[in-house]
Design a protein that fits this description.
Blueprint: E1 4-9, H1 13-24, H2 26-33, E2 37-43, E3 60-61, H3 64-68, E4 75-78, H4 85-95, E5 99-102, H5 105-122, E6 126-127, H6 138-145, E7 151-157, H7 160-172, H8 176-185, H9 194-197, H10 200-214, E8 224-225, H11 233-241, E9 244-255, E10 257-268, E11 280-287, E12 291-298, H12 302-321, E13 350-360, H13 365-375, E14 380-385, E15 393-400, E16 403-404, H14 405-415, E17 426-430
Length: 435
């Protein structure tokens, strides 16, 4: 009987999920595929660490080359992570005529254009569903389910760690530091959480999803990135008084120019994304034909991500069986149809804003601040002043109508230099809809 052989490089958390899915669901997979999808070899430098799933010792090796050079293995799953060795594994696998499945969003965001080009030259497939939103089938939805649409907007929560932290700051009033520690204690955040809390992980995912949605090469360098480390629990509390929830959002939309940005964002509390709490992810997509849809689920974790990886392996195996590798271009569009769409920098973005000024409680302060805002074409929608303490600064909160980012930056530079304003103004952008 014909079999499709699979080799796994990287036996960590997600790798363990892949092994469990392949072993526990082997019957269902074979029924869907028509032949067995057989896990033949696993490579990892640490073979002694206890794992939640066991395999025969004969399947294990510490050498990735043992998998790449095995003629019985047609699909190599790379789950090492990082930019160095992982890229070597993928390149060598493609050069050896192996198809590849990976969950490595950082590598694809940086070097995906190169690797996809190599796969095309070799007539091979690269599956990467698990690289964006874990177990949520976002890539498949964009490449296949929405293939008849012109995608206009992607708008969503793509990092469970950041969403958990912001949820706890909102619901329990925790400081950023305490919420982060709790996330680490529960295993939602890494010991070094930089990629998550600085927005970099979200940017990797947005760069990939934007390329597929809008028909461009992957352009990580053009994603504006701002993390959540500067968020004060006070701003979450005050924003809720205005009727908003705070999320770290990935936003991409096209209107002649393409904007791609990741930053803390206030959304109306009745927006569907405002109800996405804890470590969950959700993505709101607008297509010109389908309208608005939302995908929701676990964006990470052993089994959800393992599920996405194995689903990719099944798709690649179908291409092998039907002699149609690369049937669907990795970035959805044909290679010669990918366009370098002009990018809209953050300075040209127009949106609404939340400001918190630490202002001295003196007559005329509000008029000074509002005068500067008006001079820079920034219109005030709502104002709240908190407390009155003579000779002390008090929080002055504002929500603006839509304004141009470059004008906002100029105005705040001027306001922060006033002798009646203490420290740097807190700024959070507002998105009132997914459009």
């Amino acid at each position: 009987m014909q079999r499709i052989g699979v080799g796994l490089v990287g036996w960590g958390t997600v790798g363990s999920g892949v092994v469990r899915v392949m072993l526990e669901n082997a019957g269902a997979i074979e029924s869907r595929l028509g032949v067995p999808l057989e896990l033949k070899r696993i490579a990892d430098l640490d073979l002694e660490r206890e794992r939640p799933v066991s395999v025969p010792r004969s399947m294990l090796t510490t050498r990735a080359d043992d998998i790449i050079e095995d003629p019985d293995i047609q699909i190599v799953i790379e789950l090492v992570g990082g930019l160095g060795f992982a890229k070597t594994v993928i390149r060598k696998s493609l050069e050896a005529g192996k198809h590849v499945v990976t969950a490595n969003k950082a590598l694809l965001a940086h070097d995906g254009n190169e690797l996809f080009g190599l796969a095309r030259e070799r007539g091979l497939s690269i599956g990467f569903e698990a690289s964006v939103a874990g177990g949520i089938p976002l890539i498949k939805s964009l490449r296949e389910g929405l293939a008849s649409n012109r995608i206009q907007t992607i708008f969503g929560i793509l990092n469970g760690t950041a969403n958990y932290i912001l949820t706890r700051m909102s619901e329990a009033g925790l400081s950023f530091r305490d919420a982060l520690k709790e996330a680490q204690d529960l295993g939602y955040a890494e010991a070094d959480p930089t990629l998550d809390i600085e927005g970099i992980d979200t940017a990797h995912k947005l760069a990939i999803a934007s390329a597929i949605s809008f028909g461009t090469p992957i352009q990580l360098d053009h994603v504006y990135i701002e993390g959540i480390t500067g968020i004060d629990a006070l701003d979450i509390q005050y924003a809720e008084e205005f009727g908003y929830q705070l999320k770290l959002l990935a936003i991409a939309r096209i209107n002649e120019r393409l904007e791609m940005r990741v930053h803390p964002t206030l959304i109306p509390r009745n927006h569907v994304l405002a109800s996405v709490k804890g470590a969950y992810n959700a993505v709101h997509i607008e297509g010109n034909a389908v309208g608005d849809i939302m995908l929701y689920g676990m964006g990470a974790g052993m089994m959800p991500t393992g599920s996405a990886v194995v689903s990719d392996a099944i798709d690649v195996a179908r291409d092998i069986l039907n002699h149609t590798p690369g049937r669907i271009p990795p970035l959805a569009f044909q290679f010669d149809k990918l366009n370098d769409i002009k990018i809209k920098p953050i300075s040209d973005v127009s949106t609404c804003y939340y400001f918190r000024f630490a202002a001295l409680d003196r007559p005329g302060v509000l008029s000074k601040i509002s005068g500067i805002l008006g001079k820079h074409q920034i219109s005030i929608n709502a104002v709240i002043q908190k407390g009155r303490h003579a000779q002390e600064s008090v929080p002055l909160l504002m929500i603006t109508h839509e304004a141009l980012e470059s004008n906002v930056r100029k105005a705040l530079d001027e306001i922060d230099n006033l002798d009646v304003v203490i420290g740097k103004t807190s700024l959070i952008r507002i998105e009132k809809s997914a459009r």
